[in-house]
Design goal:
Helix content is about 35%, strand content about 20%. It is built from 13 helices and twelve strands. The strands form three sheets. Strands 6, 7, 8, 9, 10, 11 and 12 form a seven-stranded mixed sheet that branches. Strands 4-3-5 form a three-stranded parallel sheet, sandwiched between helices. The chain has a two-stranded antiparallel sheet with strand order 1-2.
């Protein structure tokens, strides 16, 4: 997956590469505040003097426990950011409350770019509709910097379960009065909403069992506590290779280049497409110069061969979207998840 869907600007040339028609759609009400925050950055690539940033250690707040895709990505970029900035970059795991603990911490931090948020996409685009009360509002309280990377999810089952295909999983669910259960990295996570989306399109009853990380969700499938999970490909390839978990489909429209032998959900349910992504945000009110500095440094880091090799090993594709394109993606996905949450009657307290 290239950066075209998310709107990539090369920080060295300031040339825009392919913004998709979907990314050009006007922002929804859920992200009007977000667009206002970044308005000062402008649609062009300006040279901004933020040479003094950072002046102390930077925290990357991950709203999940260690071991999941978001945590792994943060730990990949942290050392290179530290080298670039000449300051320590620390990964601070703050799991719980569907990402609200980590999000609230960043929302209340000083708006100086030294406390950054590393969320998965659905924490920004689904949780405002999923939770009746949310301690922070992403569009109001956070400033978008960049979408760092994307990756597909894989629907996995235990090898002891008599299911090898999407059709067989659907048949199993429909044969049980209570349907099936699935694990996730937490309420509102990409692993939660990806599985809910699959269940909705498949027309099956599926009960959600949330955990604190993708790693714990994987373990729940392995132990047989749940029947399936839609987990990040970056957390699962080792266990698939060892035969500990059985993949039955990837959730992206096309097969994953890291595992082309795994079919897509769309092979059985035409049109199905669910791609996860991971981002970087700061506190609302962070100066535009600092936001632009962080974005440009991240864009350069994501072009480094060693970083790209590591991301490829994890099944991730570097994105490096502009702050403007990031805000538009929030708008697009907010509409999509709002519709699903309403259709599935999903609510969290």
């Amino acid at each position: 997956m290239s950066g075209a869907r998310f709107g990539y600007v090369d920080p060295d040339t300031c040339q825009v590469s392919g913004r998709s028609s979907r990314a050009r759609r006007s922002a929804s009400a859920a992200v009007v505040a977000t667009l206002a925050i970044i308005g000062a950055i402008g649609a062009h690539c300006a040279t901004v003097n933020a040479a003094d940033y950072p002046v102390r250690a930077v925290r990357l707040v991950v709203p999940f426990a260690p071991g999941g895709a978001t945590d792994i990505l943060a730990r990949v970029i942290a050392p290179t950011l530290a080298s670039t900035w000449g300051q320590s970059v620390l990964v601070d795991n703050r799991p719980g409350a569907g990402g609200a603990i980590g999000g609230t911490l960043v929302a209340k931090a000083n708006p100086d770019g030294h406390t950054l948020f590393v969320p998965s996409g659905t924490l920004l685009t689904a949780n405002p509709f999923l939770y009746s009360r949310l301690a922070y509002q992403p569009a109001r309280d956070l400033a978008p910097i960049t979408i760092l990377a994307s990756n597909p999810q894989v629907i996995v089952v235990s090898p002891t379960l008599a299911v090898k295909t999407v059709k067989e999983l659907i048949a199993l669910a429909k044969s049980r009065p209570a349907g099936v259960t699935f694990a996730s990295a937490g309420i509102g996570s990409q692993t939660h909403l990806g599985a809910e989306s699959f269940a909705f399109v498949a027309g099956i009853d599926a009960t959600h069992v949330p955990y604190s990380s993708g790693g714990q969700a994987n373990a729940a499938v392995l132990s047989g506590e749940v029947q399936f999970a839609a987990v990040s490909i970056s957390t699962i390839m080792g266990q698939i290779g060892q035969g500990k978990l059985r993949p039955i489909a990837v959730t992206s429209r096309a097969r994953a280049r890291q595992a082309p032998e795994i079919p897509t959900v769309a092979d059985t349910l035409p049109g199905f497409d669910n791609l996860g992504w991971f981002a970087l945000m700061s506190t609302a009110g962070t100066p535009a110069a600092i936001v632009q500095r962080i974005y440009q440094d991240c864009a350069r880091i994501l072009k480094l061969p060693d970083v790209q090799t590591r991301l490829d090993q994890l099944g991730m594709d570097p994105i490096a979207s502009t702050p403007e394109a990031f805000a538009k993606e929030i708008a697009r996905e907010s509409k999509m998840w709002a519709a699903l949450i309403d259709a599935r009657k999903l609510r969290a307290e």
